Amino acid sequence: MNNTMLDFKTKSSNIIKRFRDHENLLFIGTPCGILSPLFEELDINKEVIYAPREDTAIGVACGFSLKNKKAVVLMQNSGFAQSLNILASLVEPFKIAITLVISMRGIQNDTTRENVIMGEATVSTLEVLKIPYKFLTNDSYISEIDWADEYLQTNQGAVALLITPEFFGWEV
Questions:
Q1: I want to staple 49 with a disulfide (CB 3.0 to 4.6 A). Which of 28, 66, 74, 143 is the partner?
Q2: How many alpha carbons lie under 13 Å from residue 144 in its C-beta half-sphere?
Q3: In this structure, which CATH number among 3.20.20.80, 3.40.50.970, 3.40.50.720, 3.40.50.300 belongs to the domain 3-168?
Q4: What is the DSSP track for 50-109?
Q5: pTM listed for this prediction
Q6: Rounded CA gap, 78 and 55, in Å?
Q7: What is the pLDDT of residues 45-79, one digit of tens each?
Q8: Number of Cβ atoms within 10 Å of the Cβ of 115
Q9: Strand 24-29 and strand 70-76: pairing?
């Protein structure tokens, strides 16, 4: 394993550990190439539930949250778009606290047409839904996870952490 792969593995391990430190007990999502280091880390201890659709994952996370337990939903931004109805009709009006980890297909080195459309629409859609978000960056991804947890403790509703293709070195 080269140093770059070790860096991505360390980064994914640190991210999952930090979510655990904040007592996130449910990790649910749909597989995604950009997020594969996170899924691989969660698979080590069988900590992830795979959902057939992102809106299904959000529904399960909402039920978990209503029991006062923290949930993290992992998804692509195309699946985020598919989930607009549940976000607008359940999560937002009832202020259900969940963390969305969204991979940003269609930006940076991902130039496929269908992904570019979602890459351009994701941030503005989050803003319309009034879901606060931050991009995870190499220098401060732990503090961005801390920000998300603090937001959920002091506010109501969902929060999103966005992961670019370059964050884990994903290539088309």
A1: 28
A2: 21
A3: 3.40.50.970
A4: E-SSHHHHHHHHHHHHHTT-EEEEEEEHHHHHHTHHHIIIIITTTT---EEEEE-TTSTT
A5: 0.95
A6: 11
A7: 999 999 999 999 999 999 999 999 999 999 999 99
A8: 19
A9: parallel
